[in-house]
């Protein structure tokens, strides 16, 4: 039997998965961050990404329902609070709907999840099921894409502010907030995985879980690219480019 990697080597193995597989390398993100997306493509991204954002607290609630340890539940529940927020503030989900409003979409339409691409829905639902069904170690390991998220959020903020008139601090509040939240989440999740993956079998399972999550993120962008970029073939049920549009994207103030 192959012995387990030491803690440092296993950490490096997880980081290499992100280096090779994280969705910051997808051509759709290159288009988005460089100003190459049309208004329709930006809106399609907002609509489909909302489905992922809205299911994250559901995924985390499913995880917590399986935790016997109250300390683990207490540590994890902040993730739900981050996305759902309280009644007044609304958390990350409501901040995402502010982005939807900024690009000219009706937030109620976006929140309905109508027009979400079938492949997006399938990938996200598979992630929720994974976390609900897999051992806790693998469920936590699948969240470790947060290791790589701060860089993509920083690039996105800079790129959107530079290239799109709708982008301002209100529209981009979701990404600003995640710059503070993601490092806290990943500190706990990474320590959990490194502490408990103490055999080669467990390390392989945790690494596979992280790779699975990168597949979930990558497949969402593949769906967007196929439907709205090339070949530009929107599948049945996908957003048609008009429904839920209420106005042109919000423009910057003239003083700017």
From TrEMBL:
Reaction equations catalysed: 6-(2-amino-2-carboxyethyl)-7,8-dioxo-1,2,3,4,7,8-hexahydroquinoline-2,4-dicarboxylate + 3 O2 = pyrroloquinoline quinone + 2 H2O2 + 2 H2O + H(+)
GO biological process entries: pyrroloquinoline quinone biosynthetic process
Residue stretches making up the Thiaminase-2/PQQC domain: 11-222
This protein's UniProt keywords: Oxidoreductase, PQQ biosynthesis
Enzyme Commission number: 1.3.3.11
Transmembrane stretches, start-end: none
Alphabetical list of InterPro entries matching this protein: Haem_Oase-like_multi-hlx, PqqC, PqqC-like, Thiaminase-2/PQQC
GO MF assignments: pyrroloquinoline-quinone synthase activity
Pathway connected to this protein: Cofactor biosynthesis; pyrroloquinoline quinone biosynthesis
Function as written in the Swiss-Prot or TrEMBL entry: Ring cyclization and eight-electron oxidation of 3a-(2-amino-2-carboxyethyl)-4,5-dioxo-4,5,6,7,8,9-hexahydroquinoline-7,9-dicarboxylic-acid to PQQ.
The family this protein is said to belong to: Belongs to the PqqC family.
Protein known as: Pyrroloquinoline-quinone synthase
Designated gene of the protein: pqqC
